[in-house]
Amino acid sequence: MSGRSKLQQVLENGGFAVTCEIGPPKGAAVDALREKVRFVRDYVHAANVTDCQTAVVRLSSIAAAVHLQGEGVEAVAQMTCRDRNRIAMQSDLLGAYSLGIRNLLCLTGDHQRFGNHPQARNVFDLDSVQLVDMVRAMQDEGVFQCGEPIRAGVPQFFLGAVENPFADPFEYRVLRLEKKINAGARFIQTQSVFDLERFRRFMELVRAKNLHRRCYILPGVSPVRSVRAVEYMRDRVPGITIPDQIVQRMRSAADPAQEGVEIGLELIAGLREIEGVAGIHIMAIAWEQVIPELVERAGLMRSGYPHIHKK
Amino acid sequence: MIVAEQKPFKEIVECLRGKYDLLIVPCMSCTAVCFAGGSQQGEELASALRIHCKMHGDGLNCTVRSLNRQCDPEFIEELAEEAAKADSILSLACGVGVQFLAERYPDKAVIPALNTRFAGGKTAPGIWEERCSLCGNCVLHVTGGICPITRCAKGLLNGPCGGSEQGVCEIDPDVPCAWQMIIDRMSTLGRLDELLAIQRPKDWSTGNAGGLRRLVREDLRG
Q: How many domains does chain B divide into?
């Protein structure tokens, strides 16, 4: 049970990594999931599988990750702190590793108020920093959170965390990033970037602390398909800010979907120029079909290193 | 203090299940202070029940007897005589008082007139807010005197989640982000760098995850 993940190898070899997000289905049928995955297979290094995002019940991240890998796409399993205590977390992580999952992204998790079970009791036994730290200790020290040794088979995930440069308080976001790196995060995927200027300022603070040399930062990019989608994200998704200028462009576009692609391409181009950006994380929510076009037109297929793994 | 509010009158009537040989017991501590379970609220409840019974042709025999505290066996003892005459006791205390009454008077139906809400205080006239989750393991010295376990919707110990925007929590625009408050306060105190230290997983066994909590002080035991 060893071996670095492909995502880790790409990043450690200095490649510009491309990941995307796949939402598991609200049911046990996985045909559509597998089809979605085949569609993006040749265009990303790895695909994240969300863990009941927005607190809506879906097929589990770890199970969906196994389906992804069955289609030849390396998965990044996600784990939030909302639904599991430290016992369940560690158990599920051992299970995920035993099933071949090698990348793990740790998150706090959206509050259940936003989901389809707002009357549920949340857990938050650990927070995301503690989760990262617990996984690091499992891997580096071979111990469970309680200090007892893991018997046979210490997992070795490529360990990631998230940061939202667009949430407040702005200056503290970098300190929180540092905290996650200190806890053991090796890569960071961020909330979707729409406000490049603010993200540049965030990265300035990151570089001032040399944090970009201690982890790989993959800013999020969300191509938006319609005016409705952009307004929904702006108004309803916690932690996302979208400049008026982008909303205006979508509104006045003759073909909003095409405009969404153009905006996405501009954002990717802008992000690639920022020192310390190690890749991008595409979150095309309910619009995974756009990923091939976006990756191809962004020139990420001809980057001069073999970052696209054919099956 | 313990903050409570009265149950809807209809629900209280349903809880009584037609037993109107009643001892109404206000509590003069926390629930009186938050205008939910004091003697005035007890008298008002008695009046409302009298009207209700009159309208429905039910007989009502009700006495109001306030206690200084219902979370203390010494005070509860004062009720013995009146309790003996009643079928049911309607307590205007918090859940602690209701249970202490039920333990002392096991042959009576003891009914809660209030919903016990939280440990908190008054922030403005008519407004009470929670401040303590009774976790049994206080961290307020680390967080600038603001409790993240109680005031953060996710109880986070290592900083704000990604849903903190302009000082407001993602769950409700009327809820301030506890971590924004903590960061502001620690900045004011010149102690922001202390928040870089990773707070280890909390020991919840002192909280309500550990089953019934009991505090023993040997120096005070008889």
A: 2
